[in-house]
Task: inverse folding
């Protein structure tokens, strides 16, 4: 590959890409490929989508960078208005942008701790929520992400993921949850439960709708925040805008990323206003700049 690139970076394919268009890419020898990778769930709109390209060009011609924390700017405000209208929930949404999906997950952990005064998190076997140190805790497997790295100390617990495709039933997971809360952690210490409606790293498993509804009722009963990680499954990838819609529930927080801006790095946390408005200012990560909000507007334009 190159002596200037870390050997710790793995490559699935050996060719070197030159350019792409829609669902196709070309390597540096001119050979054409149909792209079934799509940036790992990033390019729902395809390579070089004209609306996304135009949005980038228009924004770059006006201003390339300005941090929203320093001075608010119109593209961020317009994008958040459009994004909160795009997410199909019945309650009024608030939110914030991040630089990636992993940052969205990190901020969500801060948000729920601040809102609930609790620290424990329940996640699922096979789940994936990022590669930062905090999100490594949430991931439901050791290899390859936790190997030789370890995780930050913190009360994170895992239970099985119910799906027809892995043979794990709703009843089995509810029993595992009951055992967890009787043996390892007090339910009153649990701040949130985080799940993917469709696990990607876990083997493209659909969560069972009856379990999701039981989980929603359980969280309501015990004051636990329910977080849906739609970073990979969102923005039409499953046939609906967001995969949680088919489960018949509404999460309290929703994590977004990947296809949110047509391939430009961007993430978001959206959810109930009382949760997102609870932290003291400056607790949350620096906000994405002007340039990335334009592609975000294009990516959520019906």
Result:
């Amino acid at each position: 590959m190159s002596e200037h690139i870390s050997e710790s970076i793995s490559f699935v394919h050996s060719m070197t890409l030159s350019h792409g268009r829609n669902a196709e890419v070309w390597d540096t020898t001119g050979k054409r490929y149909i792209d079934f990778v799509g940036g790992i769930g990033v390019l729902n709109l395809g390579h070089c989508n004209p609306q996304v390209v135009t949005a980038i060009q228009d924004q770059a011609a006006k201003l390339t960078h300005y941090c929203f924390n320093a001075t608010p700017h119109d593209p961020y405000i317009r994008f958040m208005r459009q994004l909160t209208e795009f997410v199909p929930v019945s309650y009024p949404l608030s939110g914030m942008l991040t630089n990636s999906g992993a940052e969205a997950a990190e901020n969500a952990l801060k948000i729920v701790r601040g809102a609930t005064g609790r620290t424990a998190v329940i996640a699922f076997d096979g789940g994936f929520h990022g590669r930062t140190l905090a999100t490594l805790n949430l991931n439901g497997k050791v290899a390859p992400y936790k190997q030789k790295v370890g995780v930050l100390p913190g009360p994170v617990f895992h239970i099985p993921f119910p799906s027809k495709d892995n043979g794990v039933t709703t009843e089995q997971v509810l029993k595992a949850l009951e055992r967890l809360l009787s043996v390892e952690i007090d339910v009153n210490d649990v701040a949130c439960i985080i799940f993917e409606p469709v696990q990607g790293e876990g083997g493209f498993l659909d969560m069972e709708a009856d379990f999701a509804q039981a989980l929603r009722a359980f969280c309501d009963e015990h004051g636990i925040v329910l977080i849906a990680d739609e970073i990979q499954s969102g923005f039409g990838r499953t046939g609906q805008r967001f995969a949680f819609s088919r489960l018949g529930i509404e999460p309290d927080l929703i994590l977004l990323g990947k296809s949110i801006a047509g391939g430009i790095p961007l993430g978001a946390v959206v959810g109930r206003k009382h949760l997102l408005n609870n932290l003291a200012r400056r607790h949350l990560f620096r906000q994405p700049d002007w340039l990335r909000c334009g592609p975000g507007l294009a990516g959520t334009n019906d």
Observations:
- The two ends are 40 Å apart (CA to CA).
- Residues 50-299 form a domain with the Aspartate Aminotransferase; domain 2 fold (CATH 3.40.640.10).
- DSSP finds nine helices and twelve strands in the chain.
- The chain has two domains: 1-36, 50-299.
